[in-house]
Amino acid sequence: MAGPDQNQTEHSNSVASKPQRVVTTHRRSLAKTVSWRVTATIDTFIISFFVTGSFTWASSIAGLEVLTKMGLYYLHERAWARVQWGGL
Question: Which domain holds residue 52?
Fold first, then answer.
């Protein structure tokens, strides 16, 4: 007689489950854009500070790149949302 763990394993193996597809909405793309930019801008600031040695220059560089790259990332994310390759 099989134990409870074995029955559960046999049951899960006999039922094929499909992975859930995540729908990429504009709101999700925007949230991903903002969270990534915060992370990447901190990285840019740190690198810029080590290269220039100036808080002012590092802030200027990080401030400019956050504006340009946020827009570019959002457009990139929306373009990929239209690509069928690799989707479920």
Answer: 24-81
